[in-house]
Amino acid sequence: QVQLVESGGGLVQDGEFLRLTCAASENHDVMGWWRRAPGKQRELIASITKGGIPNYKDSVKGRFAISRDNDKNTITLQMNYLKPEDTAVYYCNAGTYGKYPQYWGQGTQVTVSS
To answer: How much is the mean pLDDT over the chain?
Structure first.
């Protein structure tokens, strides 16, 4: 059974930083982070391939950075200069090429106060 465990969420103020980490029970072709803000649909924030190629949502480019450690089966999302509109539940997910996302973590809450 595939397991994805997120950590690192919390409450910060506008302009501050957070780092999210996801530990997977196995390696995957693609891993990433999505989020669901209150009253909105879930959306892709960033993903990264096994080869280290990242993909970002336009609104977080330059502020967020995704990285992965294939030896440890972990990915990290460094979130800088957070804004109130970044408030959401952040989900780690993973999958194979062409089927991503297949597996989901439970989510971690990120709240940015103004």
So the answer is: 96
| Mean pLDDT in residue range 1-5 | 92
Characterize the bridge pairing of strands 30-36 and 10-13: unpaired
What does the pLDDT look like over 26-57, one tens digit per residue?
999 999 999 999 999 999 999 999 999 999 99
| Chain mean position to CA 56 | 10
